[in-house]
Amino acid sequence: MSVAIASVASAEPAAASAGQALGLEAKEEAFVEYDPWKRFNRKTFAFNHSLDSHVVEPVARAYDKVVPN
């Protein structure tokens, strides 16, 4: 039993060995994608999230309590 545990503990991860078996190597440089809309999208998301948290959700909760099922 200890031999089985030792062999499992010393085995390489499957993804790494599969990639090496195919002759694939990890890229040294990470690909950085330029997004010209990133700043605008983040500000829009922050605004929408704040509006939802402070206006839409309280109105929806009040509506749910007031209107009968």
Description:
- The chain is an all-alpha fold.
- It has one domain.
- The chain is 65% helix and 0% strand.
- It has 3 helices and no strands.
- The chain has helices spanning 2-9, 14-21, 38-66.
- It is elongated and about 65 Å long.
- The model has no long low-confidence stretch (mean pLDDT 79).
Task: Produce a short descriptive summary.
The chain has 69 residues and is mostly helical. The protein is built from three helices and no strands. It has one domain.
Strand content: under 5%
Mean pLDDT: 79
Major pleated sheet: none
Number of strands: 0
**SSE ordering:** HHH
Rg is: 26 Å
Q: Label the overall shape.
A: elongated
Output the number of helix runs.
Answer: 3
Name the structural class.
mainly alpha
**Helical residues, percent:** 55-70%
| Terminal CA distance | 63 Å
* Count of distinct structural domains: 1
Task: Summarize the SSE layout with pairings.
Layout: H1 2-9, H2 14-21, H3 38-66
Short key terms for the protein model shown above:
69 residues, mainly alpha
